[in-house]
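Fill in residues.
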């Protein structure tokens, strides 16, 4: 009988201890939930006022965060990405070039978009689009350097790119053009629609006529 009473008392004590532990855990969970909600609230508030710029090569110091000043590396990365994409024809330049102009129109000023459409029509009339594949890549050893970006004021930059442009016929894989070209692209602030253009930048044209540095084919 004594053993039963002792066992019963231990059971009650254990039960009380469990209840206290559960209450303690509930308090902890409630505090963590409140903390998460608070963090999420301020994070969404911060997203309205903060832009994170990721340079082409992230340095050991990590990402760059800023409010209004756009790092030169970001300007370069934007120009490189958009210009390379516009000059990527995976199957047939007659369809691909026109489609790329449409797909990347949010990253082009209206006047430069019209210039590219004019270029498309000229190439089409000259028979330089049908069945053509085009690939553009940066020259080896010409990675980003701060000197490749020049700020000229009023939210405008000049970006210098050294690229290799190769074209081949899709039907027989014959290379018909392989050249190295230097470009000076004009990039401007373009804070119009962050949903379609998260960079807040656009290519406005050429600062000077592209220069063919070398003809391979």
């Amino acid at each position: 009988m004594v053993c039963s009473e002792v066992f019963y008392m231990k059971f009650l004590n254990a039960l009380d201890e469990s209840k206290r532990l559960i209450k303690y855990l509930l308090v902890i969970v409630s505090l963590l939930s409140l903390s998460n909600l608070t963090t999420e609230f301020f994070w969404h508030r911060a997203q309205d006022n903060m832009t994170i710029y990721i340079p082409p090569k992230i340095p050991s110091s990590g990402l760059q965060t800023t409010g209004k000043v756009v790092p030169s590396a970001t300007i370069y990365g934007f120009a490189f990405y958009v210009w390379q994409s516009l000059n990527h024809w995976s199957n047939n330049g007659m369809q691909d070039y026109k489609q790329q102009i449409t797909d990347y129109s949010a990253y082009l000023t209206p006047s430069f978009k019209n210039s590219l459409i004019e270029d498309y029509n000229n190439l089409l009339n000259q028979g330089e689009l049908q069945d053509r594949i085009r690939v553009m890549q940066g020259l080896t050893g010409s990675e980003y350097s701060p000197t490749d970006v020049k700020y000229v004021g009023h939210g405008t930059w000049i970006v210098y790119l050294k690229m290799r442009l190769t074209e081949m016929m899709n039907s027989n894989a014959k290379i018909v053009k392989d050249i190295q070209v230097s470009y000076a692209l004009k990039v401007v602030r373009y804070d119009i629609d962050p949903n379609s253009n998260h960079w807040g930048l656009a290519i406005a044209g050429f600062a000077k006529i592209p220069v063919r540095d070398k003809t391979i084919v």
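Residues 1-49 form one domain.
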